[in-house]
Amino acid sequence: MDGTGELFEPLLQALPATQPVLVLRYPLDGPQHPAALANWVGPQLPADRPFVLLGESFSGPVAILLAAAAPPGLQGLVLCASFARKPSRLPAALAPLAKVLAQLPRPTWAVSAALLGPHATPALRERLTGALAQLPPAVLAARLQAVLHGDVRAALRQTRLPLLLLEAQHDRLVPARCQRELLALRPDAERVAFAAPHLLLQCAPQAAAQALLAFVDRLVSPCAAAQSAAR
Questions:
Q1: Distance CA 203, CA 50 (A)
Q2: Higher pLDDT, 220 or 96
Q3: pTM of the prediction?
């Protein structure tokens, strides 16, 4: 939800240097709902080569909307610890409270416990605190409201791309029912579970990188086989 892209650094370090990665960052002003953010990052997607799109947590619905639009070059979709509609059981009518919550102090210990759990290290806590410190309260409030109102299930049903679900089994923010719903919407999806908290890309970067590379390899191999047959 921070939108800075800085929390991807552990994953970037775990991926080989030969695997190019483009981190898409969100604006700190303007509308913050998934459709607006999809319009923001859409023009930044690669236009000259095939690619796979990864949406983590809050960005899952953004990635789903982008995938439903079928941009040229998009070969696969990955959703990490994410959802197609609000993960909380709180009614959308309580969304105005997001403005109040966003103004409250963000105690490091509580944020760390919710997002990192027992996997927290001083380095991860520092990185998390630094990323969240860049997020203005008004932007945080807008994104919290977007989560409570968002529903992209119809868009996910429209997608036909290969889909990989990365599930955090110790997730304290996104309940397991959200993963079950994603699978119900796309029964053909691949699923890889990790014994990790919500920030699984940060707490299990090596294992996550292996799952991502294996997914990409499975997408590339059929294309290579088809090209060989064509020759």
A1: 28
A2: 220
A3: 0.87
